[in-house]
Amino acid sequence: MKTWDMAWLQGETGDKKWNADIVGFEADCKIAARAVKELGTNPAGTKVTLARVDCEELGAEGFHIYSKDGGIIIEAREAAGALYGAFCLERLAACGESTDALNITSVPDEPLRMVDHWDNMDGSIERGYSGRSFFFIDNELVVGERTEDYARLCASVGINAVCINNVNVHQEAERLITTHLPEVRKLADLFAEYNIRLYLSLNFAAPMSLGGPQSADPLDPAVTCWWKQTMTHIHEAVPGLGGFLVKADSEGRPGPFTYGRTQADGANMLADIVRDFGWTIIWRCFVYNCQQNWRDYKTDRARAQYDSFVGQDGEYHDNVILQIKNGPIDFQVREPVSPLFGAMPHTRQMLEVQTAQEYTGQQIDLCYLIPEFKEILEHHTYCYDTDDTVADIIAGRANDLAGGIVTVTNTGDDSNWTGDSLAAANWYGFGRLAWDHALTSAQIATEWVLQTLSTESDVVDTVTDMLLRSRDIYESYVAPLGVGFMNEPADHYGPNVDGFEYSRWGTYHRADHLGVGPDRTHAGTGYTAQYKEPLCSMYDSIETCPENLLLFFHHVPYDYRMKDGETLLQHIYDTHFAGVEGVRSLIAQWESLKGRVDETVYANVLERLERQFKNASEWRDQINTYFYRKSGIEDRHGRKIY
Ligand code: GCV
Q1: What is the mean pLDDT of the chain?
Q2: What b/e sequence results for 106-115 when a residue is b if at least 16 CB atoms lie within 10 Å of its CB, and e otherwise?
């Protein structure tokens, strides 16, 4: 399947302008062969030599590209580096860069650059907004042309690990580790040719549902024995697997807490069994009580991950990585960075972000997420004397314990892969940023537009500008200032201000007639104390708390004066009116491109933007009306509030 949006990968071997050859790699090396195929062997093309060199600096995946005598040399220590070098060369050419005087050395910032799918075996996708699964159809794992395109797509941006099934492992998906192993093997082998390790999500209680002991207690010898046998069988069938991803004790999923054991007990039990196979256990930290009582002002969901894990620092074995969501709650458009990053200096940690726009517009509303991902990576944790950022911690620069970075992906079987054609920029951008944290959001956006939509500079500038403005616009019309969760509980799209307020989910805004926001300071739930200084004091004080997180940390009166002198309430009114105007301006920008980009893309994006306009208007009216009715305070500008 070749579609317009894969333009950065298009062109079959014969059409390409390169004439690639390999030197020093084994003749039967499949990854090197992919690199050659990628570039093509057109006798009339520019000569590209993929050469194996023994240069430690390049590591297992890095490459050095340079121009020499009218040709191009791509040097790498391992074939993976040659493949990434080949994709880099293609990208440069597609972006219109001259290849006459190349001299680029590139080594990935993160060792593990992963994509998690929440695909179910019946073909549905949890929080999927771009069609159905292309991995699973009618309870079968399908390895076909689309899968191969996907592997190539991943490799082209440097992704080296993919978990194909939902962390909520139900029904047939449990049997991915038993009856479906032959197809799993086929997929793992295909992925391996693109330097991608395949991961599977596991049900922690699999022994009980797959005919083993009627317990999942990680310290029960019968349970351990069942896992040993099962893992040995899996290894015989699919030796090249990367490992497993586990969601335990979270949102109804079983886990070690049921047996009075710790998360470390659960993770280590599996890790010890798979260590000799070279596999990794990725253990999610998304552990919290989803049966909260809204009347309870002390229990705070934001505290849960830190409280559940931090005490076990140093207990996790070396092939366990803790996968931590970027914020303490759940992928809201604005949350503080989780205080767990850096707080476990003897534990491998990886960052989990969400490219699927569950709470950020569901691939209807435009929301380019790379600026957010960069903010998270650049966040200083103050956990080490060396002033480390989240990026330093997950890459292992802070403590020599490398983890990695993962995104919950936004792809499906829609012909453009991501529903909204512009949402593909998030997918592309995640991969590029995972490889190179120094890239700017603008660089990534521009690269993407050049390779997919147009090389005409005004089109590139317009779409880049739309992408770069989109997150701020989105943020301005949804739940204000980090308070989060004013969305519709059923599908998480659109406003429903009190939708979660009296529920069990622990996501409360606490609005009354005087003010809004949960109190997470020392006087409230005490969450701010989970941060190291100076962050703890900064968040704890309403004076120094960053304004865009004001309502995450503080219960703030409506007449509170913001830094620009406006009241909190007026700020809410103003931003919500402005948000809708922002969407109007996005539409105008896009309409200016009619006839300048592919017609199908044009129509697809316009249709989404029009839906976004309706959504933004609904948010504006519901949020403003809600606070007007609560407070009784008029808009200073006399605009229409219902
Ligand atoms: C896969 C949120 C989502 C769930 C998701 C969960 C998780 O709660 O709404 O659909 O489950 O996060 O990350 O495990």
Answers
A1: 96
A2: bbbbbbbbbb
How far apart are the C-alpha atoms of 317 and 265, rounded to whole Å?
Answer: 10
Report the C-alpha gap between 220 and 400 in whole angstroms.
33
Q: Does the Cβ of 124 fall within 6 Å of ligand 1?
A: no
Task: Please give the structure tokens belonging to residue 169.
Answer: 């492992």
Written as one letter, the residue type at 481 is L
Alpha carbons 200 and 209: distance in angstroms, whole number: 17
The atom number, within ligand 1, closest to the CA of 118 reads: 1
For the chain, the farthest-separated pair of C-alpha atoms sits apart, in whole angstroms, at 76
Q: Which atom of ligand 1 is found nearest the CA of 352?
A: 13
Between CA 637 and CA 573 the distance in angstroms is 10
C-alpha span between 515 and 308 (Å, rounded): 31
**CA-CA distance, 202 to 207, in Å (whole number)?**
11
- Compute how many other C-beta atoms are within 10 angstroms of the C-beta atom of residue 293: 11
**Collapsed DSSP state (helix, strand, coil) of residue 63:** strand
What's the whole-model pTM score?
0.97
Q: How far is the CA of 168 from the centre of ligand 1 (A)?
A: 8
The SS3 of residue 383 is: coil
Ligand 1 proximity of 61 Cβ (cutoff 6 Å)? no
User: Collapsing DSSP states into helix, strand and coil, what is residue 353?
Assistant: strand
Asked if residue 127 has its Cβ within 6 Å of ligand 1, the reply is: yes
Q: Is the CB of 286 under 6 A from ligand 1?
A: yes
Q: Does the beta carbon of 510 lie inside 6 Å of ligand 1? A: no
Sign of CA dihedral 167, 173, 178, 182: negative
Render pLDDT for 42-64 as a digit per residue (tens, 0 to 9).
999 999 999 999 999 999 999 99
CA–centroid distance, 250 to ligand 1, in Å, is 9
Contacts of 537 (CB under 8 A, 6+ apart): 544
44 burial type by CB count under 10 A (0-12 exposed, 13-18 middle, 19+ buried): exposed
Please report which confidence band the pLDDT of residue 4 belongs to, taking 50, 70 and 90 as the band edges. Answer: very low
Active site residues: 251, 330, 358
* Token reading at 412: 């499906």
Distance 480 CA to ligand 1 centre (A): 22
The alpha helices in 478-548, defined as continuous H runs, are 535-540
Write the DSSP symbol of residue 84: H
Could you tell me the CA-to-CA distances from 242 to 8, 184, 317 in Å, in that order?
Answer: 27, 12, 16
Asked if residue 489 has its Cβ within 6 Å of ligand 1, the reply is no
Question: How does pLDDT run across 87-142, given as a tens digit for each residue?
Answer: 999 999 999 999 899 999 999 999 999 999 999 999 999 999 999 999 999 999 99
Residue 127 CA: nearest ligand 1 atom is 10
Residue whose Cα lies nearest atom 8 of ligand 1: it is 330
Angle at 493 between CA 126 and CA 615, to 5 degrees: 145
Task: Report d(CA 247, CA 126) in Å as an integer.
Answer: 14
- 121 C-alpha to ligand 1 centroid (Å): 17
Q: How far does residue 267's CA lie from ligand 1's centre (Å)?
A: 20
**Residue nearest atom 2 of ligand 1, based on CA coordinates:** 330
Among the atoms of ligand 1, which is closest to the Cα of residue 168?
1
Specify the pairing of strand 136-137 against strand 140-141. antiparallel
Nearest CA to ligand 1 atom 13: 286
Q: How far is CA 223 from the centre of its chain?
A: 33
Tally of CB atoms within 10 A around 541: 13
Cα dihedral value 34, 38, 42, 47, nearest 10? -90
Three-class DSSP category at 504: coil
The CB of 167 under 6 Å from ligand 1? The reply is yes
Ligand 1 atom closest to 247 (CA): 14
